[in-house]
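tool_call predict_complex ligand=acetyl coenzyme *A
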Amino acid sequence: MIGRSVGITGIGAYVPERVLTNAELERMVETSDEWIRTRTGIQERRIAAPTEATSDLAVPAARQALAAAGIEPEALDVVITATMTPDRLWPSAASTIQGRLGATRAAAFDVNAACSGFVYALALGTHMVGTGFAHKVLIIGADAVSKFLDWTDRNICVLFGDGAGAVVLEPVEEGEEGMVSFFLGSDGARGETMYLPAGGSRRPPSHETLDQGLHAPLMDGYQTFEFATFAIMDAIERVLKKTPYRIEDVDLIVPHQANIRIIKTAARWLNVPTERFSITIDRYGNTVAASIPLCLYEEVHAGRLKKGDLVLLTSFGAGLTWAGALLRWTYEPASSSRPSSG
Ligand code: ACO
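tool_result ok
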């Protein structure tokens, strides 16, 4: 069990100003707006500026989440950043962000579980607060994956976008349910289904790795798709099984945004109308660890996610990893707005 009740008390989001449309991609690689829209559901995505790194997206999202929760950075005990694209290999993105926020009392570290990273980090933060180890934890999901793409590879470059989302976790009233249950999974034996071949300690950067184009991700799209449709359902089943709730009780399902067809397949299998799924892939593409908090932010500010709603998160990504969470929504915004930008 999680221990004392833990809930989300603030949320923020940030996307870069630059919009990259399918029409522009048509001029960059051999693709079409029609192919991208029908095969993925993506119409446009945000791309970080040349001077913008992951922490530049994360800091405004974090500041907004802190303001929404009404707490100062000095009050934070822990900053956890879910990312696979930190500003540098080390120090962690979380340490950079903690320094820039002035969260002087906080511990800071990254979680790299690719697109599942936000749910992994949420599970960690929840248990830290639930056990009383920490009282105020900032969870950020942020990625600037555009920096690592091969913009001549149509198989991959059309799929992704950049962004950041952040939430604050705190103890909530005993009567409030807050975070209910989690599932975290990994199948590392299938790690090469999608991966970044070079730049780590196995193949450090060299002229050779650059010449061979090994600093851009490789992905078996079909295998990833197959895994995703299994993982999204498996995480939902496992999360619900630990609780008295059934899928009918859930007000909003927030899936990782990788492909609209994956989401529609899940809706069909669950026999749940797609209207109960959060969908932002048309505007942002796959923003990796930012995908789920960006959805939550948009749903809250569109008035579709309200205090007391039961929310199911489900994600999958490189690793391979997959994860799920069930939570009772505990945050109410003072005013409504879009994610801040540029
Ligand atoms: N424009 C036009 N044609 C394209 C493009 C493109 N951008 N990309 C691929 N094609 C072509 C292929 O070359 C292929 O051509 P061929 O038949 O002549 O060989 C054809 O389209 C069909 O390719 P498929 O792979 O069968 O297309 P599919 O309908 O499966 O869609 C896609 C491909 C979108 C990649 C899909 O498989 C998918 O979404 N997979 C999951 C991706 C995913 O979830 N990634 C998450 C990564 S998460 C993380 O943690 C990083």
